[in-house]
Amino acid sequence: MLTTFKNRDRNLTIVLALITAALFFIPDYFGKPPSLPVERVRAEVLAVDNFGVEQFGIVKTGDQALTLKVLSGSFRGEIIEGTNLLMGKLEMDKFFAPGDKALVTINLNREKTRILSNQVVDHFRIRIELFLFLLFLALLIAYAGWTGIKAVISFIFTAAIIWKVMIPGFLTGLPPVPLALGVVVAMTFVIIFLIGGISRMGVTAFLGAISGVGVTALLSLIFGSAFKVHGAVKPFAETLLYSGYPELDLTAIFLSGIFLASSGAVMDIAMDISASMREVLIKHPRMHRKELILSGLRVGRAVVGTMTTTLLLAYSGGYTFILMVFMAQGTPLTNVFNLVYVSSEILHTLVGSFGLILVAPLTALIGSFVLTSPSPASLLASAQAD
Question: Is the pLDDT of residue 8 over 70?
Answer without folding.
Answer: yes
